[in-house]
Amino acid sequence: MSLAQEFKKFAMRGNVMDMAVGIIIGAAFGKIVSSFVGDIIMPPLGILIGGVDFSDLSITLKAATEGAPAVVLAYGKFIQTIVDFLIIAFAIFMGIKGMNKLMHKEEEKKVEEPAKPTQEELLTQIRDLLKEQKNNDNT
């Protein structure tokens, strides 16, 4: 089998395609959450703490010189990234919690179904029916 055929077989597996779709949707979801945090959550939060724009929060470690730019520790962007992460993690948590709840309901439905008789119970019933039939034939 050639390398190209092996790769085609690998790439066309269902789980690889599912993973690719998940990564693409995850990247798009990440952009949505970043916009939500940066454009909707952080501005009011900045106003609440005194008009601070988190993306501008930084500490200059070394001032700019003629040939070199300033060395800046941009901790505001880091804070925004942490908030992004927390929102994404919470959304995933809620999604998994919802899926688990649905799966739990399915398990409850399966438990509620009446239990089928065991093999021994069936054999006992057959034995009893045969005895009853034999007694009816003898009378």
Automatic annotation (TrEMBL):
Protein species of origin: Entomomonas moraniae
HAMAP family: MscL
Any GO CC annotation of this UniProt entry: plasma membrane
Known partners and oligomeric status: Homopentamer.
Protein's UniProt name: Large-conductance mechanosensitive channel
Transmembrane segments: 20-42, 78-96
Chief place of localization: membrane
Localization terms from the record: Cell inner membrane; Cell membrane
